[in-house]
Amino acid sequence: MYGKRFEKETFKTAVKDNVKTLYRKTIDEATPQQIFQAVSYAVKEVIIDDWLATQKAYDEADAKTVYYMSMEFLMGRALGNNLINMTAYGEVKEALAEMNIDLNVIEDEEPDPALGNGGLGRLAACFLDSLSTLNYPAYGCGIRYRYGMFKQKIENGYQVEEPDNWLKEGNPFELRREEYAKEVRFGGNIRFEKDPETGKDIFIQENYESVLAIPYDMPIVGYGNHVVNTLRVWDAKAITDFQLDEFDRGNYHKAVEQENLAKLIVDVLYPNDNHYSGKELRLKQQYFFISASLQAMIAKYKKRHSDIRKLYEKVVIQMNDTHPTVAVPELMRLLIDEEGLNWEEAWEVTSKTCAYTNHTIMAEALEKWPIDLFSRLLPRIYQIVQEIDRRFLIQVRAKYPGNEEKVKKMAILMDGQVRMANMAIISGFSVNGVAKLHTEILKHQELKDFYEMFPEKFNNKTNGITQRRFLAHGNPLLAGWITDRIGDGWITDLSKIANLKPLVNDEQARREFMQIKYKNKVRLAEYIKKHNGIEVDPRSIFDVQVKRLHEYKRQFLNILHIMYLYNQIKEHPEMSFYPRTFIFGAKAAAGYQRAKETIKLINSVADVVNNDRSINGKLKIVFIEDYRVSNAELLFAAADVSEQISTASKEASGTGNMKFMLNGAPTLGTMDGANVEIVQEVGEDNAFIFGLSSQEVIDYENHGGYNPLDIYFNDWELKRVIDQLMDGTYANGDHDMYKNLYNSLLNTQCTARPDVYFILKDFRSYAEAQKKVEQAYRDEQRWSKMALLNTACSGKFSSDRTIEEYVEDIWKLEKIQVPSGQFF
Length: 824
Ligand code: H53
Hints:
Its cofactor is pyridoxal 5'-phosphate. It catalyses: [(1->4)-alpha-D-glucosyl](n) + phosphate = [(1->4)-alpha-D-glucosyl](n-1) + alpha-D-glucose 1-phosphate. It is a single chain. This protein has 33 helices and 23 strands. With 824 residues, it is of the alpha/beta class. The strands form five sheets. Strands 1, 2, 5, 6, 9, 10, 11, 12, 16 and 17 form a ten-stranded mixed beta sheet that branches. The protein has a six-stranded parallel beta sheet with strand order 20-19-18-21-22-23, with helices on both faces. The mean pLDDT is 96.
């Protein structure tokens, strides 16, 4: 498929040569990091040919392209994934083995490119993988943060953040493309003139600061099809000519400022997931990469096309959440100020080009920029937003005469703020949610007014994940077994995994399936031993909750339940109890106090429980440090139980839930996000569902009627657990350590509403569901059927399916065939 280039001898020679040219060393002298680099360059060389071939094929076909705009791309490591997608993993592993090099060890040398926080960023990465695999022309556009998601250390039970200097050793897969640099301007003022010749209005930005955006391209390799799309991430640098110029004129200060701006702008990813920080620098980041990406997009379009009014025939922009929605006014600006279109023409192009994905209903995640900040930083953009708003409100008032409530709710500019979601909905041609339930909540609650006005814009695109990374790469034993049983068609068509269904009644098959799970548990147990120094028993139930730490995700509920189990075991040592290993992995945003206290609580409970010999190892608690894509792959493969326990209505979709399912772990969860669809696919009997429904949660939120104290005083076992937060049991006698967490549940003084996330309300039903998990697990036959069925029913949750839906309903792309690039 790739000619001779992955043949063992050729590849070995390439690696040896690279070690020589890069480091003046022989292979025996090279460090693992140097070998990683040498191997990566050898792989990149093959990729480059296909990359050229792909771009040529796209040009020839004059193909429509999607630009996926995202502040986050949580890619994870590239080497292993690229090899899997080039169907060369096995060959390369063997070739390296012949040189006494273990590919897995080399893979571990690669830092995880962590240019994202959590679900939203990882979704973007899965989408790119699917786009390439499905032969669709696509660009991912984002920021090349010098520091990605922080590295998490646990010290004395507390999270400590360390900078993620992921570029320290250089990134072998990227290409710097200085020749495509673009200038981006901030601040200053706008001077307005009439063009003496045409009579058109001209807007001139003066006294601005500017930076140069430099693109770095990373290859996105499709599976076995020679397609290589591009993830283009922008770096910033000061405009040196200008700087000298200013220097000459004595404006040293300004030159230094521009230098600093350039350094700062791409310095670090904001570590908030599902939470808007309101920082000026964040808005700068947004405008920076959007302006640069759109300029590049238009330049590329103009190479082959003369009529900019037809732009939407060749490109579509997908805005990943509100973060990139400044794309709307920026595209308007480029079309009007640079391309000379009038407002109506520019609006037609923009509103046919831009589409918006909403990923959350959490109010604190919706971006609302203060007008004074926004207009100061982006004066011309602000003018355009004002005009979009003005024209829109005329429409609203025409449709709802006299209804100023509507105006208040739907305006872009209101109460001194620029409401980015409103702008995206008004300006784009498509608004989608990320799971059925989420989209329904958007249509009928959160965005009800917009849905009423533009019903045709709204659609659902249930999220998905790539089986290439989360099964083919992350769980090679299971991947191999599935291929032996049903062929390898599942790799590019996950609906085929349903062919495993008949095996549910085949005892031998089930036994093999569970043996693989066991081996993966042993692999994880070794990781835990190495990283945490804790022995865990791979025969115990591996109950896993890994995701960002957020109150609505309710890690707190999980740990309170563990405290409750521990009390029970202590009190009734004779009680039958199936050994459990509770595994957590989660990063808390650096400034999110309650989330950090939850991490400390988990670790403190772990300390007490893991060191209590009297319970005979029945309970173990492990907190995986620095949860990230690479160790996630190990965790999904080894999990027995998938904890998806968010307060119903709060988790827009979730995607971890799908990764567990694919790897044969039944869901223990609420009817939230995509859990609803998971249960639909696998059947209620093969999941453990508990808790309030989303409607019940919403009703309580709207009408009140829930008082956690009623539960606290009527459930003494739960009361005891909650009191243990205050009696020093898990705090070496310190009574204050968990006071905030305690208050978040009960104290009406501290929060607007105590127990905002209905932890006490759902506690008993969660505990019941957990009991059922234990019963089911004890019945080996039943459990193995359930586990296998989860894998067999996961077909819907491939991001390939999601992407086909985006293409069909929103993007309207064509598949482009790419010949092998080996002849370049
Ligand atoms: O996006 C995921 C969803 C998940 C949702 C998450 C998300 C972020 O990670 C960050 C911001 C935001 O608005 C939403 O919480 O439920 O699965 C991908 O859609």
